[in-house]
Amino acid sequence: MLPESMLENASCLRRMAVRKMEGRILIKGGRVIDPASGRDAMADVLLDHGKIKAVGRIGKPGKARVLSAKGLIVAPGLIDLHVHLREPGDEQEETIASGSAAAVAGGITSVVCMANTKPPCDSEAAAEYVILQGARAGLANIFPVGAVTKRREGQELAEIGQLARAGAVAFSDDGDPIQSAEVMRRALEYAAMFGRPIITHAEDHDLSAGGVMNEGAVSMALGLQGVPAASEEIAVGRDIRLAEMTSGHLHVAHVSTAGSVALVREAKARGAQVTCEVTPHHLTLTEESVRSFDTAYKMNPPLRTREDVEACVAGLVDGTIDAIATDHAPHSAEEKELEFPSAPNGVIGMETMLGVCATELVGRRGMSWNDLLARMTVNPARVMGLSKGTLAVGADADVVLIDPDMAWTVDRARFVSRSRNCPFHGWKLTGRAVATLVGGGVKWQLAVR
After folding, report:
1. Which of 424, 205, 229 is nearest to 309 (CA)?
2. Contact criterion met (CB below 8 Å) for 177 and 204
3. In the prediction, which pLDDT does 22 show?
């Protein structure tokens, strides 16, 4: 647990981030799905000054703005626990404000943003800056991840206690792996003292160096250098062993291989404190997409085989994989227009996550809405220790209204994000957020075109 003084400081910053709240809002007549409480029933939801006031049959709420949810799902606001907001350093690609706007347009009310900014988030002041910029934007809740090592160089631990005091909810050098087992061991030990997870970017640089796609028959046919699945799996295996050794909480980012899923499953069976996430693109796309040489399909970890996709879906269904996260990584058009080997890794996904996953997992694979939403609300909240992801009375009034039957086509020209590097452009999807409320206030509603 954090010392009382640290808790007070972090709490003070969060109070500064409270947005102007609407008084009372009644969300009327929707299908309320709250995986945290097991609720899935027709009901009304009353919001009062930023909190959930009541859920059920609500007759006359007095003076309240009424939002009709007829034909809609009413759920806790989505939580994306892996986002790159680029500020400070690369504001031409994304800012905290533009990323917050993209989040609420996708039904996401809480964003956990990575530390690989320029300079990185490796100090108390840097974490506070992220929180205050999120407050200034006044849209989604923004939670910073602190760097594990100073300057993200993988050598010397950052001031983990000070970062926790400033409000960092986790620690990661994401974008680069921590090559030193000793540094990772100490990081897990120190983070455990403050009740925070270490998010590992699982990659062995000796195996992946120079690789631009998955290693296999397709990379050989295209003449592109590959990244073997073993690069990820060796790193996952090492870090799981270190988590067991230290009793620290390890969270594995963007798992992409069948072997990684199996390693996490086995670790959980042994009682290890290990959680993990998967991205929408690793649930739906394979290395075959790279045959187009379209850099929208270049990311790290790379798109893998159909067998890996099926293993990730199975892991999500059976609970091995805890959460779905976008790994939203904006890049400018100029960067992504380079030849495939030279273009940077990364794709965006906050505005498409819900639609892609609803279409693929609910529509095509038969997952229930309750199970899908659990992977986007209560589960990521538990992983990060956030008091979010529920519609329980007294909880923060972060809510998304979803039209499960809305058909729409992804058009990157209409994105709110500053970047356009989306692998789902042109996809026809079913299911979309139509309104997003944060702290009891309507922050986004779908405009009728």
Report:
1. 229
2. yes
3. 64
Question: Would residue 206 show up in a list of annotated catalytic residues for this protein?
Answer: no
Would residue 422 count as lying in a domain? no
Q: Which pLDDT score is estimated for 62?
A: 79
Number of helical H runs and strand E runs in the chain:
15, 18
Residue 60 in any domain: the answer is no
Joined together, the tokens standing for residue 311 give 């293993």
Is the distance from CB of 444 to CB of 105 less than 8 angstroms?
Answer: yes
**Phi-psi domain of 339 (left: phi exceeds 0; alpha: psi -120 through 50; beta: other):** beta
User: In this structure, what DSSP letter does residue 290 have?
Assistant: G
Which one of 44, 90, 174, 327 is the catalytic residue? 327
Q: Cα separation of 345 and 299, whole Å? A: 4
Whether residue 437 lies inside any domain: the answer is no
Tally of domains in the chain? 1
Q: How far apart are CA 425 and CA 178, in angstroms?
A: 33
Alpha-carbon gap, residue 335 to 329, rounded angstroms = 13
What is residue 240's three-state secondary structure?
helix
CATH number where 154 lies: 3.20.20.140
Instruction: Please tell me the pTM assigned to this model.
Output: 0.94
Let me know if residue 338 belongs to a domain. Answer: yes
- The residue range of the domain holding 178 is 77-392
**Structure letter (DSSP) for residue 358:** I
The Cβ of residue 310 has, within 10 Å, a number of other Cβ atoms equal to 13
Asked if residues 146 and 158 have their Cβ atoms less than 8 Å apart, the reply is yes
State residue 117's pLDDT score. Answer: 98
Tokens 């455990």, residue?
192
